[in-house]
Amino acid sequence: MNKRIAVITGAAGGMGREIVASLIRDGAKCYGLDISKEGLKEMGSTLGTEFVGIEIDLTIPEKILSSFQQIEDTEGGMDILVNNAGTCLMSNFPDVSVAEFELQMKLNFDSAFHCSQAAIKLMNGRAGVRKIINISSNGAYNFETFDSPHYRASKAAMDSLTKHLASTYAVDKISVNSIAPAMTNTPLCDILSADVLAKAIEKMPHGHLMEPTEIAEWVRFLASPAGDISSGNIIILNQGRDVH
Ligand SMILES: NC(=O)c1ccc[n+]([C@@H]2O[C@H](COP(=O)([O-])OP(=O)(O)OC[C@H]3O[C@@H](n4cnc5c(N)ncnc54)[C@H](O)[C@@H]3O)[C@@H](O)[C@H]2O)c1
Fold first, then answer.
1. Region 160-183: what's the mean pLDDT?
2. Other Cβ atoms within 10 Å of 49 Cβ, number
3. Is the shortest distance between the CB of 35 and ligand 1 below 6 Å?
4. 86 alpha carbon to ligand 1 midpoint, in Å?
5. 235 near 179, Cβ under 8 Å?
6. Looking at the whole model, is its pTM more than 0.90?
7. Region 31-47: what's the mean pLDDT?
8. Average pLDDT, integer, range 48-52
9. Which domains does the chain have, with CATH numbers?
10. How far is the CA of 135 from the centre of ligand 1 (A)?
């Protein structure tokens, strides 16, 4: 079987690096899309030829198109897309500026939308069940946490896209799922004050944050043949915090 080609957005971040590492361990060649030139360079020097970094601002749809064109020109197609790029901007409603709102949606939702458009075309005619895995958030579902309204909305929109694509492409053997983690130990936690972070950790049933390696294992599972029969699911990972 030919090597599977995976594309991971936000590859140089806390979650992205572990997702890339786990997919490479499982035999995929990974293209990492990220705005961090330094992060991608560092990954390239440790991961070798199974990793290709593409420096890109994912808030610009034209750049997304040209990145996927580059992947098509080199590989002829792709098998796995992980829409992982995202951030959490923290202004409170109603004092969210237009610029902050637009950036939140562009990075968290629009980029996943445009990457999925490009990826579906590159998945056409490939063998086996192809995968789109969207990294959503518990914040779209748990309203007792600190998350901001535009962050929650960006992830809820992403999960609606997950279900739409899952139902549209099921017969084409493209499976689409969301993974929605709660607090995970990545540089994104730096947006929180020590006080807010401590309160959030207190609420985690295991008494500590989840680790990005744990989330990456779920991505690896969905991307593997074991994940072939799951599509249209929003998989909540939170140590059982919000079971009502
Ligand atoms: N860490 C958590 O607690 C947590 C919880 C739930 C969901 N998530 C989601 O997980 C995903 C990954 O987050 P993380 O915790 O690894 O964050 P992170 O900040 O460590 O990584 C984000 C990555 O996105 C990249 N990025 C930022 N802006 C970009 C742009 N315009 N173009 C291209 N790349 C850009 C950054 O360079 C970085 O490498 C996000 O979608 C986030 O919403 C995180």
1. 98
2. 7
3. yes
4. 4
5. yes
6. yes
7. 98
8. 97
9. 5-234 (3.40.50.720)
10. 9
